[in-house]
Design brief:
Heat Shock Protein 90, alpha+beta, 8 helices, 5-stranded mixed β-sheet, 56% helix, 3-stranded antiparallel β-sheet, single chain, 381 residues, 17% strand, 3 domains
Length: 381
């Protein structure tokens, strides 16, 4: 299944989830409002019955203290009664009372009036809190739609911006990767033309040309593997580290000191794609060079920590602020004036997505240096 089909399916899942999230509060609020409305109806029946009993008890000269207490507790229920003589009674309405206006309002409502032997019709009005509850889910829905719209707009804008940074960064990274061997080939060709009679010089130039052609093949292979599943093989991690250091050393300033694995360093087998992994090491070592102004120390330490093979690449450069330890791995983020912020992003993708390892800033202090750690699993023998 391609990415577009997956995206389309997730959109449907999210749409269904959004409908559930929207409908659930509407259903619950409606259920709550219906329960409250039923309670108001019951209270109205109790109030009318209490009024009827008070009239009867008053004629029989019976104490109605309890009835008054009941009416006091039901003082928030507004009731309109119409007796058999068409007399209108208003209960619990604040002064001033506009009888005709209230009567017109209750008759036009959707509430079905109650009846009793003494009353032809009994109307009641819901309290304001019940009306507010009925409006609450719609207000919630409106706010949710506003929130989702703003969040989607910001997410979409951020995603497009990140995509633009990735495309620009990939284009520049491609140009950077191809630039060195291409410029080398152009130089060797000019040398070859001017030394066509010197067979020894021609042989050396041909060797350099072959190296640059191999580098072009290597760059092409690296980019072709981005987005696909690379083949992993058990490889000596010590050999790969030494190879990356030997490639970077001749291209560094003379005052840069390199410390790497030596004869006493233990070697381990790790499942790697050597072309992609060497790209990661080269990027990290170049970043260390850029962090130092042509002077300092770069050390590459290889060791085993429990069941993980760890590679620590340290430098004595400018350091990374604590708040940027995670940000530096995002596409487009760069502290260099001429950087395009894709090297570390690709490094994380290669280590974590392709090699199931981890890469992170182990420690860093401003003006004292940085250590970036790579963790990989040892190949099973």
């Amino acid at each position: 299944m391609d990415i577009y089909q997956k995206t389309g399916r997730w959109k449907w899942y999210l749409a269904i989830l959004g409908i559930v999230i929207t409908v659930a509060p509407l259903y619950y609020s409606n259920h709550l409002a219906n329960n409250l409305a039923e309670r108001e109806k019951t209270h109205t029946e109790l109030l009318v019955r209490t009024l009827e009993e008070m009239v009867i008890n008053a004629d029989l000269d019976i104490d109605v203290t309890f009835h008054n207490e009941v009416l006091e507790k039901l003082s928030d229920i507004r009731v309109v009664t119409i007796n058999n003589n068409q007399d209108v009674g208003l209960h619990n309405y604040p002064e001033p009372i506009d009888t005709q206006k209230i009567l017109k309002r209750v008759k036009s409502s959707k509430i079905t009036p109650l009846t009793s032997p003494d009353y032809k019709a009994i109307y009641w009005e819901y309290p304001d809190i019940l009306n507010q509850i009925s409006y609450l889910p719609w207000i919630q829905l409106l706010l949710l739609l506003i929130y989702v719209s703003i969040a989607y707009a910001l997410f979409n804008l951020s995603r497009k911006e990140e995509q633009n940074r990735v495309w620009v960064g990939m284009a520049k990274e491609t140009a950077h990767q191809l630039g060195t061997p291409i410029s080398g080939l152009m130089g060797w060709m000019e040398e070859l033309k001017s030394n066509h009679d010197d067979h020894q010089a021609r042989a050396e130039l041909i060797q350099h040309i072959e190296q640059d052609i191999y580098k072009l093949q290597q760059v092409s292979d690296r980019f072709s593997k981005i987005g696909s599943v690379p083949e992993l093989k058990p490889v000596s991690i010590k050999t790969e580290c030494l190879s990356a250091l030997n490639y970077i050393k001749p291209r560094a300033a003379r005052k840069i000191k390199f410390i790497g694995p030596n004869e006493d360093t233990l070697d381990y087998k790790v499942m790697l794609n050597t072309n992609l992994f060497s790209w990661v090491l080269e990027n990290l070592l170049r970043n260390s060079l850029d962090a130092m102004e042509a002077e300092g120390t770069i050390s590459l330490t290889l060791y085993k920590d429990e069941d993980l093979i760890c590679i620590d690449i340290s430098d004595t450069g400018k350091g990374i602020p604590a708040g940027s330890w995670e940000t530096i791995f995002r596409p487009g983020f760069s502290t260099k004036k001429r950087g395009w912020g894709l090297g570390l992003s690709l490094a994380r993708r290669i280590i974590e997505n392709y090699h199931q390892g981890k890469i992170y800033v182990k420690e860093s202090e401003p003006e004292r240096g940085t250590t970036i750690r790579i963790e990989l699993k040892e190949a099973i023998a």
